[in-house]
Q: What sequence folds into this?
């Protein structure tokens, strides 16, 4: 495993864990054939320097799939997107930042209004538009800035790299880094692409995050298969990200697949192409997940917890999430303190089965690996070496919890002064 | 409800919610008849100014009850105290701070050694000694300082107020305030007393906290009844305290009841005396719970979440705990930000049943009450007034979640820079 968190451009490094070739390409959600995007400032946010209104459109009808927050309190856009994606087809995604459109009396009206605006201007059906909102909960929201900005949003639709970046920028809230990726791979001799934009970065917890991720692909795939792949994918990607333990009301992952790569349509769960597409998608969602964690509110480090030796995958996920979500572990990572007792403590209360007397804990980073706990107890280790390892910006906590065959990985970040600062007065 | 957090001495104010008289008395765990306590520095901690070794002893045999952490990773003292309390009898509690005696290879040996030391010096049976430890997990521990200090610990056993304070001081870790109380009330014409000392203040979460609470009483009560009362009590007291979401490995609540008040022995769950003792104990555990929350690591405020309108008590507890545990709610309280959307969000993911369209949220403090959410949505309110209310050091978040008849209360604190600072490098 490589511990270089960032590539030469300062972006989180993409890792290809598949056994086929994946090439990084420019263009984000506009990289796949037949997709355009746009992002403008329409005035939902006061600051004119921050884009707040985004649109992604496919030239042709798409197979569509979605995954949404499990919070009982759901934003109106979540409710409407769940409905609109349920037939497996869509052509556009419209999204605003600056207001979550959640717990607002006119929430459904606004969500419908946003879909209708896009549908009217694009000449498509309203229920082929998916919608998402992010920002403060419970604030009154008006259609006015979006109505005024809609012409500009549509006239700025382009299929180039800049258009994807503008859309990515428009969905950001407290994110400090734009989150975007596009990859190219081969399916039955055809070049296929997957692109994605996303935003974090607080109110993020297993079972999705205040996170939005919009994924485009030109792969030809049946909608029910696409939905199955996505539903399975999030269990080990977005659901394994935890910034602060708060599961948002608005989490949304949407995938549009327009088929323009002209590969043989994927309709069979047992086919080779199904495997390749699943793994290619996973490489994208893993990349985005790491990005979300590394850019968690106030974060200075990406923390990765790798569980091994578990009696099942579900159990491993539970254990990994419990370690990553622990405020005390997070604070210790901020302080580069090899306080492994807190890791055992988090394993112990997380509800996962662990064989306490067989637990071992290693810390790893670009500076090396150090074993700090073996057979559930202390081992002699160099505090100096541990400090050196933990001062890096990408830390792995590798934990073996028994003799089982299963593992899982969760991603999170450290708990810092800046998290408190950012969230002490988010609304002002 | 009174929002004066502190009394004239700067201690958390005691509230009597029973319909009988309760008088605050001096003396902590030494206030009930026939109890002595001691607290010294024996050298587990380097700093000679901090006591680290405590002992509480009853002159006669006691009915004993205990409640312990649900963490799968348990400190050795927890395992041994569970065993020693299981016969319903005990006479002494021995406790050290500075080392949790958890995940240490010689953990059981040390825990047994501590009980044996006390038993030998006091001339009682080893299995009548209960033991607890608090401090860092996974550090090697030696009997040596305790062996050397035992004579001093026993020769400093006194039944006065200072002795209780020394014991309370000796069990503190990152606590900033000593936690102690004693009350007097009447049972069948006899004056009875309950005293308690406790420590917090990080690694605190529902299902107990890194908290130790030792309770003494001279009430005459059958052990199985005492255990039943304690097990029931913690559901609405200690289990409703959350500082940081981390359930400790060492949480321990112990009650010793020596019967010297000479009331008619409580043996019947349906008796009036059973009710009176239960409520008196609850007033003590509620006081201690509020103390633990208010003195949570880095805390500047006590936050209380009162849930009403729930379909069951269990459901209300779940909802209250979810709000109190939310990092985002805690950070908003630190910033005196009336960001009620985060409260709805926390209610939504906490697993409690809520009738979203009927949720209302009020903030209350010594500065007044303000309604910020009604029928699950925004209401117009004065941000200025809300800020004034939230700038106080004792805040209630009053939430109605539907038309049910049940309620519950949870206590916590704000999330501050100091929490991060304290936990960024706890071990040094």
A:
């Amino acid at each position: 495993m490589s511990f270089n968190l960032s590539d030469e451009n300062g972006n989180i490094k993409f890792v290809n864990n598949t056994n086929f070739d994946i090439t990084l390409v420019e263009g984000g959600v506009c990289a796949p054939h037949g997709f355009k995007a746009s992002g403008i400032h329409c005035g939902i946010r006061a600051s004119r320097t921050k884009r707040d209104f985004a649109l992604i459109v496919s030239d042709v009808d798409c197979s569509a799939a979605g995954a949404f927050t499990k919070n009982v309190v759901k934003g109106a856009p979540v409710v409407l997107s769940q409905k609109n994606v349920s037939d497996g087809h869509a052509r556009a995604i419209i999204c605003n930042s600056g207001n979550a459109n959640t717990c607002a009396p006119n929430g459904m009206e606004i969500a419908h209004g946003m879909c209708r605006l896009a549908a009217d201007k694009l000449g498509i059906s309203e229920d082929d538009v998916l919608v998402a909102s992010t920002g403060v909960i419970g604030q009154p929201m008006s259609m006015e800035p979006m109505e005024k900005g809609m012409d500009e949003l549509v006239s700025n639709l382009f299929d180039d790299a800049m258009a994807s970046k503008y859309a990515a920028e428009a969905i950001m809230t407290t994110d400090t880094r734009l989150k975007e990726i596009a990859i190219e791979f081969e399916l039955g001799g055809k070049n296929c692409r997957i692109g994605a934009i996303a935003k974090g970065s607080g109110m993020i917890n297993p079972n999705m995050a205040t996170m939005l991720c919009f994924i485009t692909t030109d792969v030809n795939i049946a909608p029910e298969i696409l939905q199955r792949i996505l539903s399975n994918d999030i269990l080990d990607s977005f659901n394994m990200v935890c910034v602060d333990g708060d599961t948002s009301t608005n989490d949304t992952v949407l995938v549009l697949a327009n088929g323009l790569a002209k590969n043989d349509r994927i309709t069979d769960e047992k086919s080779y192409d199904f495997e390749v597409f699943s793994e290619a998608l996973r490489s994208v969602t893993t990349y985005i997940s790491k990005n979300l964690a590394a850019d968690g509110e106030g974060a200075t480090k990406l923390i990765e917890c790798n569980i091994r030796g578990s009696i099942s995958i579900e159990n491993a996920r539970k254990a990994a999430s419990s370690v990553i979500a622990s405020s005390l572990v997070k604070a210790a990572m901020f302080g580069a303190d090899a306080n492994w007792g807190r890791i055992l403590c988090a394993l112990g209360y997380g509800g996962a089965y662990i064989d306490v007397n067989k637990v071992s804990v290693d810390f790893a980073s670009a500076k090396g690996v150090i074993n700090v706990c073996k057979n559930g107890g202390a081992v002699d280790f160099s505090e100096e070496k541990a400090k050196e390892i933990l001062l890096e910006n990408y830390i792995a906590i590798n934990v073996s919890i028994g003799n089982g065959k299963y593992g899982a990985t969760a991603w999170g970040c450290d708990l810092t002064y800046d998290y408190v600062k950012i969230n002490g007065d988010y609304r002002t």
